[in-house]
Amino acid sequence: MQLREAEALLLDVVDLHDADRIVSFLTREHGQKRGVARGARRKHSRFAGQLQPLAKVRVHWFEKEGRELVRISNVELLRPAHRMQQDLEGILVGGYLAGHVIEFAQEDEPNEHLYRLLDSTLEALIQGTSRDLAARYFEVWVLRLQGIFPPPRECPSCGREFGEDGAVLPQNGDALICPDCAGESRGGLRVAPEVLGFLRRSGRENLERLALRPPPERVLRRVEELCGNIRRHFLHRELRSYEVLKQSLPAN
Q1: What is the Cα–Cα distance from 193 to 212, expressed in whole angstroms?
Q2: Which of 52, 73, 152, 232 has its CA 20 to 30 A from that of 64?
């Protein structure tokens, strides 16, 4: 049995039996891990107040080859996430971000970029950045880091740069192409130039800079629709956390 230690972001915490909890967490060095925090539900547990979903922590765990769950021995809280847990929207948006990571992060596969993306997005949310803007920025970058949705610069079919006519996401959801290559008969989702502009900005500006000059709400809705189409095409289903968010909050 091997003892490991790492800085981590807590993704999910669920009850197990009468006294324990199962904790999912993301690390830079070891990817996503799942472990049991024994006795975490007891009144005087050493984990009391430490297992906050979306908190940044330092975690120690024992790992045995061949076992799916590790055994968590200690958790030290580095950055609490209680400001995101104060209302339903904050809880659901946080769960949506975590849902992406649980879906895409691999166990024992180092992922510095995904860790930094989630860490910086959570920090921005805690500091008061628009949840809508943060969610759109995050979902664009998750798809980009997975190699699913590269920055839209030019049509892959004809090589021309996207212009005032915008672009089209074909029904097969593979990549954006120009309207000329899409043709009238292929259908698909129309992507306006202002949406392309946000996608390009998100590739060169961090969330803090985007928040200084945020796009209109209508652009964020179109970005959400576009990313949702691409995500569902790739996964062949929707994230459960997204479905819960849309069902629980009033329509924009």
Answers
A1: 20
A2: 52
Q: Which domains does the chain have, with CATH numbers?
A: 2-80 (2.40.50.140), 89-248 (1.20.1440.120)
Question: Are 208 and 130 contacting, i.e. CB atoms less than 8 angstroms apart?
Answer: no
For 156-184, the pLDDT digits (tens) are: 989 999 999 999 999 876 789 999 988 86
User: Amino acid letter at 94?
Assistant: G
Task: At 69, give phi and psi (nearest 5°).
Answer: -100, 135
pTM value surpassing 0.70: yes
What tokens appear for 224 in the block?
A: 């959400």
Spell out the SS3 assignment of 116-153: HHHHHHHHHHHCCCCHHHHHHHHHHHHHHHCCCCCCCC
Give the per-residue pLDDT at 183.
82
Q: Per-residue pLDDT tens for 34-60?
A: 999 999 999 889 898 899 999 999 999
Please report where in the chains the tokens 């659901």 appear, as a residue.
92
Share of the chain above pLDDT 90, in %: 79
Q: How far is CA 112 from CA 22, 25, 60, in A?
A: 24, 14, 19
Between CA 93 and CA 146 the distance in angstroms is 21
